Amino acid sequence: MKRLHVHVGVADLEHSIGFYSTLFAAEPSVVKPDYAKWMLDDPRVNFAISQRAAHGVEHLGIQVEDEAELAEVFARLQEADRPVIEEKETTCCYARSRKQWAADPQGVVWETFLTIGDSVDYGAGPAFAELRNEA
């Protein structure tokens, strides 16, 4: 079953953790010095905040649970006729993942990914300018 992913850049991590913990009635499942994540079932969302991204919504995504779902979503992105960046294995947000990135016609960046393990490093994402035709 797929899960919506939202990543928001924040100025004050501690205050933002307090706000979102109250909103979701749950503590984050992951907290790092610059990052926090809630894996919620109601609503079914992987909601992350960090001090690494520009303030506001940084990107949206679809998290899948297995390789078959990943292949299905990858195929749909390929049909969308937009630039795509594929990362066969990468580290981002303290997790190891397989990912594909695309931006909609307005420049909103979408990520599809399968998490394959944890990481002690935050890692990095691709340059979004390429997806938004800004390069």
Overall pLDDT: 86
Which sequence of strands runs across the widest sheet? 2-3-4-1-5-8-7-6
Strand content: over 45%
Report the helical percentage.
10-25%
Shape: globular
Query: What is the CATH superfamily label?
Result: 2,3-Dihydroxybiphenyl 1,2-Dioxygenase, domain 1
**Structural class given helices, strands, pairing?**
alpha+beta
How large, in whole angstroms, is the Cα Rg?
A: 15 Å
In whole angstroms, how far apart are the ends?
35 Å
Oligomer: single chain
Counted beta strands:
8
Note the run of SSEs as H and E: EHEEEEHEEEH
Label the CATH architecture.
Answer: Roll
Taking pLDDT < 50 over at least 5 consecutive residues as the criterion, the unreliable ranges are none
CATH class equals Alpha Beta
Please count the helical segments: 3
Kindly give the count of domains: 1
CATH topology: 2,3-Dihydroxybiphenyl 1,2-Dioxygenase, domain 1
For the biggest sheet, the summary is:
8 strands, mixed
Describe how the helices and strands are arranged:
Blueprint: E1 3-9, H1 13-24, E2 30-32, E3 35-41, E4 44-50, E5 56-64, H2 67-79, E6 84-92, E7 95-103, E8 109-118, H3 128-131
Parallel strand pairs: 1-4, 5-8
Antiparallel strand pairs: 1-5, 2-3, 3-4, 6-7, 7-8
GO biological process, one term: response to cadmium ion
Protein name: VOC family protein
Pfam families: Glyoxalase (PF00903)
Essential attributes:
single chain; 135 residues; alpha+beta; 2,3-Dihydroxybiphenyl 1,2-Dioxygenase, domain 1; 3 helices; globular
